[in-house]
Amino acid sequence: MWDFASGELRLVLKGHTKPINDLAISPDCQLLASASDDHTVRLWNLTTGKQIQTLLGHSRDVNAVAIHGGGQLLASGSEDRTVRLWRLGNGEAVRIFSNLAGMIRTVAISPDGQMLASGGLDNQVKLWSLRTGELIRAFVKSHYTSVNAIAITPNNNTLISASKDKTIKFWNLQKGEVIRTLSSHTDSVNSLALSANGKLLVSGSSDKTIKLWNAETGELKTTFADHSNAVNAVSITPEGDRIASGSADNTVRVWQVE
Residue 50 and residue 27: Cα distance in Å, rounded? Predict the structure, then answer.
């Protein structure tokens, strides 16, 4: 854990026994969830750095984790082809979405807490009801290869997916139809992040760049290109004024949007 302003190292959280693939922070910034190749999801207190709980149940690497805006539900996606929905507090898996067609690479919970989206090696985005566990929709011909990242806009109207096929797609969440496709990256798009108001989209790619988009129009605003290897993770502050990026060049970089 780093101080965003100064870059000072604050905490090192230790407990996983294999590589960590994804992180999610609760809305109140008190809880961190981490997903790992050790088949676990671990919950951490961000104030003390102490591990609170280990969520067990996946039988293979856990690649993705997402916390609902209300901070009560957590979703995890794994190479075991399942997505598990956990209730925070008691660590209970309240629902298991199983027998999916391929390894799960990414999960997202809709801001209204009604839907779960998943994507992975079956090249499709799938939308599930959190209440019933039923498949609402499979987005037909989502991408030509694996889906690496998913984001849902704050108004619950649009789903955004990123793929190894170098594209970012915007979908009408109710109809399952493509609204637009962004094709400026020249290699796999690995990560997405939306500003809190849903107006800015950030993407990170194996082409070593980070791109900042107008999420409402699809206009490319700027490209950040100082990494020397693939960009595997991006995040944006709620205000949309700073971006953080993590790369295979072994650095995390913080960018001033203006």
Answer: 18
Q: State how far the Cα of 128 lies from the Cα of 97, in Å rounded to an integer.
A: 9
Residues in contact with 62: Cβ distance below 8 Å, sequence separation at least 6, in sequence order? 21, 22, 35, 36, 37, 39, 40, 41, 76, 77, 78, 79
- pLDDT of 14 above 80: yes
Closest CA to 153 of 204, 206, 205, 117: 117
Contact yes or no for 210/249 (Cβ under 8 A): no
Over residues 36-55, the pLDDT tens digits come to 999 999 999 999 999 999 99
Backbone φ and ψ of 230, nearest 5°: -55, 140
Mean pLDDT of 138-154: 90
Distance CA 222, CA 248 (A): 21
Q: How many whole angstroms separate alpha carbon 238 and alpha carbon 4?
A: 13
How far is residue 137's CA from residue 64's CA, in Å, rounded to a whole number? 20
Q: Reduce the secondary structure of 146-190 to three states and give it as a string.
A: CEEEEEECCCCCEEEEEECCCCEEEEECCCCCEEEEECCCCCCEE
pLDDT in tens, 56-73: 999 999 999 999 877 788
Query: Degrees (nearest 5) of the Cα angle 172, 76, 117?
Result: 10
Report which DSSP code applies to 110: -
